[in-house]
From TrEMBL:
This is Nicotinate phosphoribosyltransferase. Residues 355-461 form the Nicotinate phosphoribosyltransferase C-terminal domain. It comes from Trichlorobacter ammonificans. Residues 6-130 form the Nicotinate phosphoribosyltransferase N-terminal domain. One of its GO terms (molecular function) is nicotinate phosphoribosyltransferase activity. Pfam families: NAPRTase_C, NAPRTase_N. Its EC number is 6.3.4.21. It catalyses: 5-phospho-alpha-D-ribose 1-diphosphate + nicotinate + ATP + H2O = nicotinate beta-D-ribonucleotide + ADP + phosphate + diphosphate. SUPFAM superfamilies: Nicotinate/Quinolinate PRTase C-terminal domain-like, Nicotinate/Quinolinate PRTase N-terminal domain-like. Catalyzes the first step in the biosynthesis of NAD from nicotinic acid, the ATP-dependent synthesis of beta-nicotinate D-ribonucleotide from nicotinate and 5-phospho-D-ribose 1-phosphate.
Amino acid sequence: MRYPPLLTDFYELTMLAGYFEQGMTRKRAVFDLFFRKNPFEGGYAVFAGLEPALDYLEGLAFRPEELAYLHGLGLFKPEFIEFLREFRFRGTVTAPPEGSVVFANEPLLTVEGDLAEAQFVETALLTIINFQTLVATKAARIVRSAAGAPVIEFGLRRAHGPDGGLSCARAACVGGVCSTSNVQAGMIFGLEVRGTHAHSWVQAFTDELAAFRAYAEVFPAATVLLVDTYDTLHSGIPNAITVARELRARGHELRGIRLDSGDLAYLSREGRRMFDAAGFPGVKIMASNELDEFVIESIRAEGGRIDMYGVGTRLATASGVGGGALGGVYKLVELAAMPRMKVTSDLAKATVPGRKRLMRVYGAGGEMLQDVLCLEQDRLTAGDTVYDPAHPLQRTVLPAGCLLRDLRRVVMRDGQRNEPPEPLFTLSARSREELDRLPPGCLRLINPHRYKVSLSERLHGVRNELIGQLHCREG
Ligand SMILES: Nc1ncnc2c1ncn2[C@@H]1O[C@H](COP(=O)(O)OP(=O)(O)OP(=O)(O)O)[C@@H](O)[C@H]1O
Ligand SMILES: O=P(O)(O)OC[C@H]1O[C@H](OP(=O)(O)OP(=O)(O)O)[C@H](O)[C@@H]1O
Ligand SMILES: O=C(O)c1cccnc1
């Protein structure tokens, strides 16, 4: 997929023109992309958007018509427009595998390259990673609430525009959603496309039974009937049972029904009882109607008998407390081999300078214990003391017998991917497996346990030293 180079904020171009005039374009720069708060006030995030981000970086090149547009703005010198003609991304990107479970304040992408290219890609990387990570996280929360019942993404009509709908379908898949109603996403990303029918289908016929019969005639092997247009228990389900009998007489089984209003726990229990009593235990019950992780949890807690969930609005718009947008940022952490840092009076908001590695610490059973940021040359082992970046007096010792793994790897060198893109089902399997290794308290929807992301002793020291130097300079 091509992401045009003008998919950026104007200031990236003005800074680029400035670096060009100041002779600074070739200074080596390192940027970290990270977010400061887990979305949805949750205990984790699912990292998504890496492959599209790499597509963007690999394909970054200005077309003649894009250069002509910039020239027409009347602000940029012809030499700069000529510089843009050959402008490419030739840097290095380090990242966790897509679908990994990640946490606030961890560098997701680290981009290293000439200052010109590493700075310019900020906005596009943020728009890709922020949205997809947010939606993948929402999807994972919903999928875990559904406890094994498949979740279908129905969000296109309520998404933030056509491109939001497309990215949503992809990211939802990374978070574990099994299929989508978005046909374009099906074709582009190879996702399974699924659907039922609308209320208007029922309204288009003289009566509900006629509508159900007509649909079953066209799709005898794949019929899911929407039963709530008039009266779910007194009309919709009895009519669906009639059609199920007629289909069976023709050698087919009704696949399912969809409930789209009312008390979904109660209606699904009643529906299950009616289909079982009529000899159709295999008919699946799907629910939709403004579902999210909390509604699904509530339906299950009430003994609802839902076999699959269709989730649209609240997934595509990533709504809910702490949702709506992921505040990922892109910060300069090293320039010309010198660590850089943004200091604020709030230690939690101060960046962590320099090139770093992100280590994941596992217990003997493969369970995730905590993550540690360290210097590239650090060799962390069990017994090392690590520090809470926001509360340095809080420290922990890595337990005996723990295993350490470098979570990130170089995924792009000299502007070229190191490996071919991974299939989406690999990414969704990864997010599921990693979430199974998280301490269960981190998966809680409300007041989750805070997973530790610490600094190694040496990185903690470097950061303190830099804070001291910056204070001296300003004092
Ligand atoms: N058992 C349940 N537990 C928790 N929330 C539920 C349950 N059943 C349905 N809901 C949710 O309640 C919300 C509103 O449902 P409500 O019945 O008020 O609306 P509705 O059925 O769309 O109404 P109508 O279509 O008649 O205007 C929806 O978000 C739905 O997902
Ligand atoms: O509730 P969501 O999670 O957003 O899921 C998508 C919704 O979109 C459809 O409603 P709509 O009223 O647009 O059309 P319909 O006539 O097919 O119900 C569908 O019936 C769902 O209720
Ligand atoms: O196929 C469906 O049932 C569907 C598709 C999009 C939105 N709501 C429902």
